[in-house]
Amino acid sequence: MATSNPSVFLLSVNGQIEGANFPEYDNLYCKYSFVYGHDWAPTSGLEEGITQITCKGSESSHKLIWNFPLETTFKSTNPSGWPQLVVSVYGPDVFGNDVVRGYGATHIPFTPGQHTRTIPMFVPEPTWRLQKFTSWLLGRRPEYTDPKVVAQGEGREVTRVCSQGFVTVSFHIITKDMKKLGYDTGPASLVNTQSATSGWSTEEQPYTME
Amino acid sequence: MKERQSSEEDPGETLKRTLRAQRQRQKKRLLGHSSAQESHVEEISTIQHHSEDEGSAEKAGDSGALSRPPTGSQRSLSGRQHSASSQHLDSFVTRRLEETLRAARSKGESLQQQEASLEPASRLQSLRDRDAVTRFDKIDPDRAGRHDDPLALKTRVTFREAARRTEKGLPTAEEAYNFFTLNFELEPQDGTEKERKKRKKQKKTTEKDSDEEGGVEEQEAAEVDEDNPDENVDQSEAAPLVRDEEEDLFVIEQSSRDFLEVKKAEYVGYRKRIQQESELLFTPSFRTVPTTIKLPEHMKPRYLEDEGLYVGERPKISLTNENILENRILKIEEGKKWFGDDGRIMALPDPIKESSTRPPLFHMEEDLDPALHTVYRKAVKSKYANLYIAGATDPEGDYQLDVDVSGLIFSHHPLFSREHVLGARLAQLYDQYLTRQHNNLTGHLTDKLKGLRRALRNIHEIHGGESLNQAMQRRISEYSLEVRNTRQLRDSEQEKDRTLLKHIVKLWKELKALRDFQKFTNTPYKLSLRRENVDRTLDEQEYEDEILAELMELEAEIEADYQKKFAEYKKQLQDWKLCVRKQKTKKKKRKKKKKGKAQDETEEEDEYQDVSESEGPVEEGPPKPEPPEKPDFESIEQQVREKASRIRRKPGESILIPELSASGNLTASELCPRSETARREDVTRRSLFVKILYNDKEVSRTDSRSLNTDFRVHFGQIFNLRIVNCPQSINLQVFEEIGSSCYLLAQVFVPVPEPSVVADRVSLEEFEFSSNQRVMFDHEGVGSDVPLSFEADGSNKQTLLTSGKLSCRVYWGSGEDGVALAPPVSQQRGGLHSGLSRLDAVTFIGASGLYDMKKIGEWATRSRLDPNDPKNASIMQLLKVATSGEVTAPEYFRLEQLQEEFNFVTDEELERSKRFRLLTLRNQEVAEFRNYKCVPSLEREVTDKVFQEYEKRLKEGEVVDTKEHLDSHRALVAKYLQKIRESVINRFLLAKHHYILSDLVVEEEIPSIGGAGPGILGLNLFKLAEPKRPLKPQRKARKKVTAQNLSDGDIKLLINIIRAYDIPIRRPQSNKPGQSSQCAIQGSDWLLSQVQVRPFVEVSFQRMVLQTTTADGPNPCWNEELQLPFSAPNGDYSAAVLQSVKDEVFINIFDEVVYETGVKDQDRAKSIHTRVEKHWLGSVKIPFSTIYSQSRIDGTFKVHTPAVLLGYSKERSYGTNGAYDTMRNLSEGAFITLFITIEPQLVPGESVREKIKELKFDSQEDERLLQASERFEREAAEGYPDRPCITTIIDLNGKTIFVTRYIRPLNPPKELLDASLDDPQETTALVARFVSLIPSLPDRVSFSGNCDLWSTCDQFLTLLAGDEEEHAVLLCNYFLFMGKKAWLIIGTAIPEGPTAYVLTFEQSRYLIWNPSSAQYYGQYDTFCPLQTIGCLVNADNVWFNIQEYTSPMTVSFDTTKANLWKPFFSRSFSHPGLSSVQPEQLVYRGTDKAAAAELQDRIEKILKEKIMEWRPRHPTRWNRYCTTTLKQFLPKLEVSGGQDMAEGHRHELQSLLGDNNISGFPLHMPFSEIRPIIEAVYSTGVHNVQASNVEFALAVYVHPYPNNVLSVWVYLASLVRT
User: Fold this and answer.
1) Which pairing describes strands B1144-1156 and B1170-1183: parallel, antiparallel, or unpaired?
2) Cβ contact, residue pair B941, A135, below 8 Å
3) What is the distance, to the nearest Å, from the Cα of residue B1008 to the centroid of all Cα atoms in its chain?
4) A188 in contact with B at a CB cutoff of 8 Å?
5) Could you confirm whether the keyword Cytoplasm appears in this record (chain A) (predicted)?
6) pLDDT value of position B1618
7) Does the beta-carbon distance from A7 to B1044 stay under 8 Å?
8) Pairing between β-strand B1144-1156 and β-strand B1208-1209 as defined by DSSP bridges
9) In this complex, is the C-beta atom of A106 within 8 Å of any C-beta atom belonging to chain B?
10) What distance in Å separates residue A75's CA from the closest CA in chain B?
């Protein structure tokens, strides 16, 4: 491979789904998948995965910890359709039915370095109250036809959602040849200064030096 | 005591109770052992120790061991001593208690009293308990091993305890511990043994006496080593401590709930208590302990610091506390060892631990709502960039501004007395005088005048009386003018000098008068006039010369003037004369002219008058000008002399030089009158200071200086300002202070110095200030802004304002190298402007203003654009042009006026970019690029090849490919269809991006009550209780899978072939033609003897072939499942693509024929060579799209068998099962039962129809009708969800149209009607056949979306393609034309799914027609593919089926019954008279036989080629004879419609071909394209015959029908010679 003039750039994503903060629920597990555009292709690693079920600890912070590793490398020719991590959390309800507890998505950070993302999670709302009751009773909550819906903007206007909790994901990003192809994604010093937040939340942005 | 109290705020009630119980126990013990206390003290202590350990008395045994410390135990610096110490304490306490107990007994006190005295011990325990509890949870390694605590340390700990109690506010035990222990020397290991002894000793001594000190020490000295001399002290120390404790505990008791219990203590008498306390309590002294006591005897204090050793800084302790501590320590045994050599308590430099030992707070932030997390932002300096000096932040960029405030002088102050006022004025005048003197303007001017005069004289002398040239003359006149001006200037200066002098003298006189008047002196001013004598004669001479010179000059001037005027006069006179002559002609005119002239003259003469005062006012109107008067020289001289005497000193008069000195004595205050004294006092009270404000911020102020009597204040202070901001203003505010109040007197603004100004370049400047504050006094002070008069009569009032001069200077500080520490020029000039000038044009005017010339101009002037700066060249140019008026500001408004700036390439370049084009096309979802992966990242990597296909297609749009279509008309149609398809697809792409909730969210429907849904709520609840594995399981719906996350190999087609009926059976081969009939007769025998048929089923899909096992007989049962993989085109599994898959599943039934061949003679018995042939018997075709949309297909299908099957007969098994036959009689042919589904179940593509409704496609229908139809459909869907109901449909233009508009009688082709006039039934069949011959093309295939587009009949006939609905509509319309009663049935059928059939009512029975196959079924036909009848449609109405059942057999077709059929148009909503969308009449094109024949040849040729291609390894021989024979059959077959020809056919062939084993069949299909024909031929597998001697025959016949409808026949046969 001629490294001098590359035709693709590589994006290596390491990290982990650290845990979640769902104040009301317990025994949750999480599914993740990457959603990316046409010009992207995963070269290694798992595109989809499912975590173990975790319970809340007894210590003061009632956090659900998964520490589920993510390791994927993408190659691409075009930053359009930059990969997104789609996370959906499931867990049993009162009757033991497995119901969805939240959907969320975030773009993989652009800049190399360490990043932590707190993804606010949400679920679709039942269309009306009785439906809400029956869905609760029968354990068949409304779900997205495809969790990947949350990674796209189209058609979302028809849904109503209710926020649920937060999932924290940490990323370590390495890119290769992006600059050679003319895409400058950040400071050369690899200092993460700023990145887009997902949704409305003010995120914790650690200022880490690499 | 208070501290104690606070430290044990909350002893729990329960704890207390338990403690009390313990106490009781202890008491008992105490009592029991009181006699032998000495030996038991140890034990008691251990018990106590235990009670401390949560009061577990069981451990008493080993606790003794614990209390004995291990000898080798490491003396770690731990906090364990605490418990040990308390233990130790306890031992004392108990001992003490015993004593008191005894005392109490002897005194006969009550038991309660004892208890009270016992209280402390238990209290202590409770304390310790609490301590233990609180600390146990934190695992403190220090505390963990506290049991192996060396006893030797106890003493220290006791001390520590004491210290802790006395010292206020020690943070933690650990800190305190560290403080006091870290530095201590370790004790020898063998201390324990001694300790024991000592303890015993102590006890003894304490028993004897508790208060001795010296004695104990002596005793100790005798017994114990010098190591621990203060053990005794400790003991005596400990006891009082306990007493202390006791006191404290009382207090606690009171504070708590058991207040009543405490009252018991009151029984103790006061004196008693005092007595007790005096025994127990010890109050350390506050006084400083002398060093001698602290140090060992005969030792001098040694100061390490003095010896040059480093001594760390000791922690701060208040002296009293230290004293108390020292006193206390000294009481303890061995107390002295706590002191260092310098006599101070040994201590570590800093007892505070470097790292915090407090357990860290546990993830407090984790509990926080993530939204509330603290976000760390780095502190950033606010960037008011323009206010700051660039680079001011770096250390080099220090700028220093020095402000030197030297002092101030008041020129008026409210406290001025009158004398002061005069004095100040005098001083002012004198100052003026001095400056004048200094400037010496008069002398200067005099010199100049002299010089000028000399020059002038020189000129005159040189040239003598000669005529002067022009230049000279001008020069002379210039000089004389100059002389005149200078003289005048000098005169005025001289006059000023003189008046000033006069004024000074006058003021001084006034001042003197005032001093005389008021009889005291306030000001030190003293004016003396110095006289300077001059040489009188010289002076006179000079004076005269001067006058003479002046006189001469004046004369000359006047003379010159006169000459000039005279010349003018002459000229005027001449003019006048001229005028007079003219007067006669134009009298009137002339008069006016004269007037004008006269006026001119007067003006001139006015001027003249000024100098010479010769002429009076000029008379008005006299025509003749007056000659100028001769100047009067006499008067001139007089004037000059007068003036000289006025402004100049008289000749010989001495020069007066005033000298003002402030050396005069002031009258002492005592001598002054009262008011003056008050004023003077007032003055002394005042003081002044100056505030320095930099950029309106106070940065400094001077010291306050008191006001002197001379009203001068000297500050003499220099302020160095380190500045960061650009200097904008430097303001000095003068404040006056009276007592404690101060007020602003005046402000002085000092200009910011130039950057080059440094200290040595600038001298002090005086800045005047004034204040208009009104001040009045009742003493001598004149006040300010108050009218003041110096005259006796009070006239000539003056109003004086406070004013003065501030002398100061401002300059830039100079750095080390002498460079001014000033910011660069560009930045610091003009604070406000500097800000503006550095503004960007855009930010200043705003982006919208960029087109406004006026604003640009404004900005340019305000920001002082440098016109020479090349950067500004363009804007200057623009401004120039704009102001010249050539270009006006545009009058339009632009939304994206800066767009161009953001374009990084031009549009053309962008267009040319291949990569961009690729991306654009992909985004537009152009078919070729829809799923294009990985667009190359670089332009050069995008090859042109990518676009080739696309461009080809674009080009092809114009060119018709006849090769593919074989028929020019069809090619055109295909193109037309393609266009429609594209437009529809575009329309649907829009619809596709319109989402409804169900597209995104899967939500369980609320079960409708009583509906056909999953059941009512209760039932569902019941479901919860259902057993997990029911005995009678119900079929559950499989989970549906969305199509997009699939890949190749995921989808499988499951085909379950169950059984078949009525498979044609083999006809035995007979050489003789007559045999066949015989065979038929002997059917039953033959049946038994020979295998009729061995059929198997072969399923082919996407060229993948699977087959079942072979079964026997005409009614075989296979019951086998076949799995066929499915792969979508291009690997795209989106719903849209799957829907448009055109592949079909061919289910072929073959007969397996085994021939024995080539039996070899040698081993006849051993091996038999057989040849297996398969003969095609029939097929069923099911399009994949149907399976996909239906998701499962289950039923019995009619096998499409060829009309003639050579070698087979459709024999019926007569008489075997009669009952079944009766049913079957109605229909002919073979049937097969199938179950087909897709694994996994795919979600069928969303119906675009619904979306179109959402989108509300435009419609020409009445709104009311649309609403009604929507309601009708909705009600139908709610009531009967599985019955299709259609009221409105969408036409090819995407418009919604009511369905009845499609039904209208239409004429079939005339040829068909004429074909058999006599037989209406045959005509009907022929019409149906004609309709069925129009190729069928499902909409979802053509439009890649599940939509139903209905074309009208003429469109249908033009397109020659359509799905069931179009066929049904056309057939229905034909039937109506033929006078039949016909309806359209909207229902579901297998395998089509939702479809349309035609219902006719003929001969009192209903017939159901399948329009695509031209088959008709009776209402009670078992094998009718129609399964559900949803609604009926005719031209007038739509009826919805509301009967219980939906299958045709159980449905009553009587539409008049309202309880069976719900009409759309009823009485309430009558038919609005909808006109039909169909044409009135259909026009058909005639049949083109030539074209048909040509097509026939081409098809034959292609098929022959294909068959040879499919047999690559075998030669393919064509039996030409057979072919021609077959060719003759085909037209006959067409005519008969494939009915009942087999028999004759076979005979004919047989006779022709003799002993050939023929198997073959004709295929019949409507013609659309060549591909389906090839597929059909391939699927029969005729080409697979492997026999070496096989020959083939192939014949094609195309029968043309009107309007280019073609019926294609292909006759295939294989011949094997026997």
Assistant:
1) antiparallel
2) no
3) 45
4) no
5) yes
6) 65
7) no
8) unpaired
9) no
10) 9
Cα B739 to Cα A66, B706, B732, B742, distances in angstroms:
75, 11, 22, 8
Name chain A contacts of B993, Cβ cutoff 8 Å.
154-155
* Euclidean distance between CA atoms B403 and B720, whole angstroms: 6
d(CA B518, CA B672): 9
Query: What is the tens place of the pLDDT at every residue in B938-952?
Result: 778 777 787 887 887
Q: How many CB atoms lie within 10 A of CB B212?
A: 15
Q: Are B1443 and B1431 in contact (CB under 8 A)?
A: no
- What are the pLDDT digits (tens) for B328-369? 888 877 777 787 777 777 777 666 676 777 766 655 555 666
Residue B779 DSSP one-character state:
S
**3-class DSSP string for A32-82:** EEEECCCCEEEEEECCEEECCCECCCCCCCCCEEEEEEEEEEEEECCCCCC
Look up residue B1135 and give its two tokens.
Answer: 């719903």
Chain A residues within 8 A of B939 when measuring between CB atoms: none
Note the pLDDT tens digit of each residue in B1406-1419.
888 888 888 888 88
Residues of chain A contacting B1043 with CB distance shorter than 8 Å: none
To the nearest whole Å, the CA of B908 is away from the closest chain A CA by: 21
| Distance, CA of B234 to CA of B151 (rounded, Å) | 13
> Residue B700 — pLDDT band, cuts 50, 70, 90?
confident
Is residue B979 classed exposed, middle or buried when 0-12, 13-18 and 19+ CB atoms within 10 A define those classes?
exposed
B977 with A132: CB under 8 angstroms? no
Q: What is the 3-state secondary structure (H, E, C) of chain A?
A: CCCCCCCCEEEEEEEEEEEEECCCCCCEEEEEEEECCCCEEEEEECCEEECCCECCCCCCCCCEEEEEEEEEEEEECCCCCCCEEEEEEEEECCCCCEEEEEEEEEECCCCCEEEEEEEEEEEECCCCHHHHHHHHHHCCCCEECCHHHHHCCCCHHHCCEEEEEEEEEEEEEEEECCCCCCCCCCCCCCCCCCCCCCCCCCCCCCCCCC
When the candidates are 3.30.70.890, 2.60.40.1930, 3.50.30.30, 2.60.40.150, the CATH number that belongs to A9-181 is 2.60.40.150
Task: Determine which of B1000, B1046, B1255 to mutate to test the interface with A (most A C-beta atoms within 10 Å).
Answer: B1000
DSSP B775: B
Angle between helices B81-107 and B13-33 (to 10 degrees): 60
Instruction: Express each pLDDT in B410-450 by its tens digit.
Output: 888 888 887 888 888 888 888 888 888 888 878 888 888 88
Contact B1177, B1205 (CB under 8 A): yes
Cα(B820)–Cα(B801) distance, rounded to whole angstroms? 39
Query: ipTM for the complex?
Result: 0.77
**What are the boundaries of each domain within chain A?**
9-181
Residue whose C-alpha is closest to residue B801's, from B410, B413, B416? B413
Alpha carbon B524 to its chain centroid, in Å, reads: 78
Residue A119 pLDDT class (50, 70, 90 cuts): very high
How far is B563 from B575, CA to CA, in rounded Å? 18
Q: Which of A18, A30, A26 is nearest to A117 (CA)?
A: A18
How many angstroms separate the CA atoms of B1519 and B1594, rounded?
9
Contact A78 B919 (CB under 8 A): yes
- Rounded-to-integer distance, Cα B231 and Cα B615, Å: 135
CB A86, CB A103: distance < 8 Å:
yes
Contact B890, B882 (CB under 8 A): no
Interface with chain B: mutation pick from A18, A21, A38, highest number of B CBs within 10 Å:
A38
Q: Across the interface, do A202 and B373 touch by the CB < 8 Å criterion?
A: yes
Report whether pLDDT(B1544) > 60: yes
Q: Give the end-to-end CA distance of chain B in Å, rounded to a whole number.
A: 132
Specify the DSSP element, H or E, that contains B1590: strand B1590-1601
